[in-house]
Design brief:
CATH class: Alpha Beta
Number of helices: 7
Largest sheet: 8 strands, mixed
CATH superfamily: Acetylglutamate kinase-like
Low-confidence stretches: none
CATH topology: Carbamate kinase
Radius of gyration: 17 Å
Structural class: alpha/beta
Strand content: 15-25%
Mean pLDDT: 91
Helix content: 25-40%
Distance between the termini: 19 Å
Number of domains: 1
Shape: globular
CATH architecture: 3-Layer(aba) Sandwich
Length: 255
Amino acid sequence: MKRVIKIGGRAQSSSQLPDRIAALWNDVPASFCLVHGGGDEISAFQRRVGANPSFMNGRRITTREDMAIVRMVLSGLVNKKLVSHLVAAGTPAVGISGEDAAMLTATRVDPALGYAGKPAAVKVWLIQTLLDEGFLPVISPVASEEGGERGEALNVNGDDAAAAIAIALGASELLFVADVQGVLDDGGQPMASLERTEAMELAQNGVITSGMRAKLEAGFAALTGGVERVRISMVNGLSDPAAGTVLSLEQSLIP
């Protein structure tokens, strides 16, 4: 059994996260890897240097200049800070990026989004080698551009990267750890389950927007690609398999 756990940027600031990850690792060692985000940190650094973050349909527009910031913040600051906290909690975490050994390659999503990429291929041997040796891979979603110039990198949405890695690993579960209890209905209450058609209706009605919409797109893509279970929850979902919203492709598949 393998799980892929995507830690959202805001969820990374939870004081409970390192100890909960450590407890999970001790309970089922070498059974999962982490993928992290860091959008807020990227935006904050952009503003610090006089740049203005911009988005289209919840996806970050990334210029060549922005890409240098994305690399520095995601694969440097955010990745190493998270690794440091996990190691301090007793977890043998190792930080890598999708660029390492070309583990994650991507193609450009849309010319209007610049250096934003969508996963093209995942070489899971690096992740598997670390797990086999007893290390927890902590992955920054910066990818090598497939067929691009040497050294060119693309900014991949962390949810998309996590879904691609989960598919490639044949994961039993993809868990998105966010700063909300799950997908919220039009009354602001968390939903125990959500199927694809209902999600589309909620998006069309403006109930689901921006970041959550990206998570759902990635989650349903993971299910289509063979991942057995996809869930969205807060940090407590790491130890409580019933927490959060479970996604399904069809109504009849909801547990």
